[in-house]
Amino acid sequence: MPYKEREINKMYYTMGEVTEMFGVNASQIRFYEKEFDVLQPKKNKKGNRLFTPEDIENLKIIFHLVDDKGFTLKGAKEHLKTNSGEVKENQKIIASLEKLKDFLLKLNEGI
């Protein structure tokens, strides 16, 4: 059986990695951290923020609501509080569809 690369799942992401993922400044991530209670990154002894995969998922939800759906920050906060389960489920569906899209695009390039 041939060796298959597995996806590496990190326990913590640095601020630099997070800003690169989302294509934003660190100040925007820090601002969202203050505004949204669901974001609770850990801090090491130096004070550097360490984001868990759950924090990354919450950031994806926040960016989707604010940037894609056009919610205000206040509206996004209220929507997260009232529809937390539904929003997280929708984000999982979006992530799986994006993975499928990437796979199909790679498959199309290979043909």
Automatic annotation (TrEMBL):
Keyword entries, A-Z: DNA-binding
PROSITE patterns associated with the record: HTH_MERR_2
Single GO molecular function: DNA binding
Record bears the keyword DNA-binding: yes
Domain HTH merR-type residue range list: 12-82
InterPro entries membership: DNA-bd_dom_put_sf (IPR009061), MerR-type_HTH_dom (IPR000551), MerR_fam (IPR047057)
Protein name: MerR family transcriptional regulator
Organism, scientific name: Pedobacter hiemivivus
